[in-house]
Amino acid sequence: MKRIxxxxxxxxxxxxxxxALLDYVTEHxxxxxxxxxxxxxxxxxxxxxxxxxxxxxxxxxxVADVAEETLAGELELFPLPVFPAGRVLAVEExxxxxxxxxxxxxxxxxxxxxxxxxxxxxxSYEQ
Length: 127
Fold this sequence. Notes:
Structural class: alpha+beta
Order of helices and strands: EEHEEEHH
Low-confidence stretches: none
Strand order of the largest sheet: 2-1-5
Shape: elongated
Number of helices: 3
Number of domains: 2
Distance between the termini: 67 Å
Number of strands: 5
Strand content: 15-25%
């Protein structure tokens, strides 16, 4: 089990939940939006309840072991949270024509950069 210190308090939850939170916060630390995530935690009286954490770009978590071994049935007691999907709302599949056009622009760009590089190195020899 893990104790997560967060926003001035702490919660006790399963190893996998703590790792999932760390992974999510690390992966989404560059965004500008906050999300609410429900996780199961163990209360001081031994019962479990759902808590809602708000995770954002400035979220800082301190995770510490409180048990040497993972408890049997821990994943059942503390199921993995469901994280909101990323901010990508739709992705357009490029047509073959658009792919060919993008490739052509990339080749033109690469040639231009190469010409600039060659011109810059040529000028340095002239000076």
